[in-house]
């Protein structure tokens, strides 16, 4: 069994510091020299650890000198998860069919859960933003990449109504990870205007059911919408 790389000591240390509250989001990590001396590793290994943490969405690093330089702790879990999913989708280790099934499980259950959540200014704001996105997507001649970006945000917003940050993070990651597949599917469609109109009808049906707290109807509308879209790849 190969020995762990030197930088893993810093990853384990930061996990412990975050878990115990010694370091919090927004705080800076100690400098390269300090960490290298503390863990008795090279500064190159420290830089490797920072790069890994950056890819994981745990730190944002800025170069240079002065108070703004260095690695600051952040928390963007969907960034790293989406990157990992996208790479494994590319290797075909994660079949698109299973990704679609995961989306169905997440979104339909979120629709059922959102029905139970109390009314609040935040809920109303999310529903208003979802409606605004659909209006934007109705614009004639809207580029397909803009359409799909708004489409993804629409679904993420509705999922967030369930009030589960883990589900919302997973949903955001899945949507970002599959954007390449979505674009490939659409690029082969000669009837995109017709398809986009159908998608918008489906979106508005989902939104109406969510607004009216008809969880079962919203879940069924989402199930039909998602399977219909991914079925387009079989008929290009």
From TrEMBL:
Keyword Cell cycle: no
An example Gene Ontology molecular-function term: DNA-binding transcription factor activity
InterPro entries found in the cross-reference section: GntR_C, TF_FadR/GntR_C, Tscrpt_reg_HTH_GntR, WH-like_DNA-bd_sf, WH_DNA-bd_sf
Origin: domain of life: Bacteria
Keywords of this entry: DNA-binding, Transcription, Transcription regulation
Pfam family name, one: FCD
Coiled-coil ranges from the UniProt annotation: none
Domain HTH gntR-type: start-end pairs: 4-76
UniProt key word Transcription: yes
Protein name (record): DNA-binding FadR family transcriptional regulator
Lineage per the UniProt record: Bacteria, Bacillati, Actinomycetota, Actinomycetes, Micrococcales
